[in-house]
Design goal:
Structural class of chain A: alpha+beta
Number of strands of chain A: 7
Mean pLDDT of chain A: 89
Radius of gyration of chain B: 30 Å
CATH class of the largest domain in chain B: Alpha Beta
Largest interface: A-B, 16 and 25 residues
CATH class of chain A: Alpha Beta
Helix content of chain A: 10-25%
Number of helices of chain A: 4
Bound molecules: NADP nicotinamide-adenine-dinucleotide phosphate
CATH topology of the largest domain in chain B: Rossmann fold
Number of domains of chain A: 1
CATH superfamily of the largest domain in chain B: NAD(P)-binding Rossmann-like Domain
CATH superfamily of chain A: Rv0098, thioesterase-like hot dog domain
Number of strands of chain B: 24
Number of helices of chain B: 22
Strand content of chain A: 35-45%
Largest sheet of chain A: 7 strands, antiparallel
Helix content of chain B: 25-40%
Shape of chain A: globular
Distance between the termini of chain B: 78 Å
Strand order of the largest sheet of chain A: 1-2-3-5-6-7-4
Oligomer: heterodimer
Mean pLDDT of chain B: 87
Chain lengths: 195, 705
Amino acid sequence: MHTTSPTEPDVVQYPDDPELLHRVLTPYRAKNCEYLKSAVILREGRTPETAKLTARCTFEIPESCYIDDTGHFNSVEFNICYNQMAYYLTAKAVKDKLVEPLSRWDMADFWDRQLGNILITDFRSAFRTEMRGRHFRGEMEIIDIAEWEGTDLREPLLVMRTKCRYWDEFDGDSFGEVTVAITNPPAPAAPAAGQ
Amino acid sequence: MSITQDSGPAAGSAWPPPDAEPVDPEALYGRLADRGLRYGPAFRGVRRAWRDGARMSAEVALDAGVPTGDFLLHPALLDSALHAAVVPFLDGDDESAQLPFAWRGVRVHGPAGRAVRVRITPGDDRTIGLELTDGEGRPVATVDSLVVRSVSPEQLGARGGRLLRTVWRPVPPATGRPAPQGWALLGADHLGLTGSPAADRALAAVHPTLRSLVVALRERRVPETVLVCVDGSAPLANALQRALSLLQEWLFDERLADGRLVFVTRGGVAVRPGEVPEPAAAAVWGLVRSAQLEHPGRFALVDLDADAPWRAVEAAAGSDAAQLAVRQGALLHPRLAAAAKAARPGWDPRRSVLITGGTGSLGRLVARHLAERHGVRHLVLLSRRGPDAPGARELVDELAGFGTEAKVVACDAGDLAALRAVVAALPPEHPLGAVVHSAGVTSDATVGSLTPRLLDTVLAAKVDSALALHRLTEDLPDCALVLFSSVAGVLGSAGQGNYAAANAALDALAHRRRAAGLPGVSLAWGLWADEDGMASGLAAADLARMARSGLAALSVEQGLALLDDALTAEDPVLVPLRLHEDALRSPDAPLPELLLDLAAPRTRATAPVADADAFRARLAGRPEDERAQEVLELVRAQVAVVLGFTGGEEVEPHREFSAIGFDSLTNLELIRRLTAATGVRLPNTLAFDHPTPVELANSMTKLLG
Ligand SMILES: NC(=O)c1ccc[n+]([C@@H]2O[C@H](COP(=O)([O-])OP(=O)(O)OC[C@H]3O[C@@H](n4cnc5c(N)ncnc54)[C@H](OP(=O)(O)O)[C@@H]3O)[C@@H](O)[C@H]2O)c1
């Protein structure tokens, strides 16, 4: 088969958006576990239909929010950091209309769903070498977002497959594959008149 | 050869030759075709022929659609003269074709016009002489001597392809499997399965939604078999998406690992002549067939007829067959069998042929073939890139060399308005005679990771455009629609559930057209060994998997010969392909069930179970490190099979699977093989969690206990 675009797709950077990050992390603030410090989004591909998004993030865990110091990055923190990246990446995709179908949402759609409708359905993590630093980096990539219509069997659903990885300057390394479901997605817009 | 012109000898003996036996030109071309030489109607120039021992005489003429141009003697006329000339050489009972080889003393005496008489006289040792005259007996050309050589069908490369069709054979009566018990129905009852006392007795539960099934699972009420009805009247894309979501749900929930999900359709397959399948239900069959290949034993397909749906389901319950149809209470399963040829009209060279995907790999081959062999003079080659497609200009030039005018158009084959404009622009003296739909894309993923978008991408290129072409030609009752589908739809294709679904829908569409009295056929091609077609992306592992399952690739010559054969056959859906003859003969190759009637008798599939028992017995009681070593050898050997390596020693124990070419599909196959070899069900994610042969083997050793 031929690939339609032989040229390297364009990559556009969306710099850290502290205001958005602040709002996205609100649910974590009182619990003192705002781990995600900054995130740069990279978008490959020219249109929202073909775009691929990656978030490049920095983290800091001054002190674990649920356990005495274990001395290393553990799977619960892996998960919390993932959630923060995923919320931010989703919010940014909505705000700047980066990828289908999130580009069809507005911010109110996101804030309404952030806590109740965005759920992890499959979570796999693997720890290759221990991470010991308080500061580290993380990256998350959206592999695809599937839009499932409602049927007699289940309600409509978005399913976002993602990959993530964390590393620190002491060669610590862990990675994972996570699937996120978004229930109750906003109804698709009616087709424009004349189509 | 060099040709000289002179006034020539005066010929003029009696015509037709007295004492010679007439030879039927139809029969003559039949004999040539048997030896791999197939000529299209425009090139079958022999109008009458006579034979007197080794002497032949014939009248040959140019087809009405072929212009004489500036030729004194049109090459097609000379060529036709030779069709008659080789007849005496066909008497030997070998299967060789006879082709002209070396010419001596060729002289043209005068213009031939559109028709000539030919006299052929034998010379010494496989040579002949030819004398061509016009209708009045005036000399046109002579050939002093022509050497004829024998060429085997293998050398011609035209043999070895098969033209098959799906037939439904009765299934031997069930061997004592109990009536359904503890079954569940999931989702809407589109087919009226429930409501009878028998159904109510047998159905332990009816789960209207997935959520209600999950609740049952949580309470450890795990059904052995879950039935789900397919609504064939739903829009195709919706029916397919629903089926895909179910398949994924089934694979995702480990608690269902021992259960079977049965898709029940009505009109999903054409079992008896005249049955017309619903494209949506047919597409679900294509998708589920692929899921069956990826996850054997977990999914089944049952197609019902109109009467007593629950009784039919009960009948089917007695069989473990993965694919069944129930007709009037009898169980049938699909098998591929040879298709019969019949006489049907071929290509009309005066009319235009539209080829979608005409700048793609098969599209080009077909264009060239129609121009060269069938004398088609007006082609429209359509693809989204159109003239920008690589090689488009060269193709047009090449076709012009055959006297064929080809127009390359950039157009989406699903855009009916644009298609209508293309047809409206055809010269009125060359109206549309046939459409070959060769446009298509693949977008491969295992059933577990397909998405609605990946379904839509493939459906758009294949099915939406087939429907548009069907509408385009609906009002042209003598315009044939030749759909290029794939054997993937018939057999399923691991890693290509979306593509299999689209092709199965195309096959259903061909049935619908025929039922509506419109000409058309769907050709469910096997793989072509062409360098840049869809098959070109196949890795060694894919080819190895194909060969194991009995499929081989068609050479270009074989493919084109099958195209010609297929257009003469009766069935609305034909399966032209090449089979791996060694795999068919080997009693333990893992052939798809549909090929079993074409293969040597099989040994029953109890062997793997015995092997697995033996393997575990070998491990038992051995020290830990020896056990791990034994399992590692098993892993390496199976990795080698999956990737098509010659042996396990080629597999490095510490290299990551992803680095040696593993993907999600090969991953699944590895786990499936290791499960079969050990008799212990291994989780599908095992090779993700343990990404090298050594790590995988160590974790398996623990699981094997
Ligand atoms: N090759 C094989 O071994 C094999 C085996 C079985 C079946 N088949 C079937 O045979 C057909 C041809 O296969 P191939 O190997 O020749 O593939 P190919 O080389 O990839 O050609 C496919 C052609 O279809 C065109 N196309 C795709 N979408 C289109 C659309 N929406 N409208 C118009 N044109 C479109 C493509 O050109 P643009 O991208 O420019 O549109 C391309 O020229 C396919 O339908 C395939 O399913 C092939």
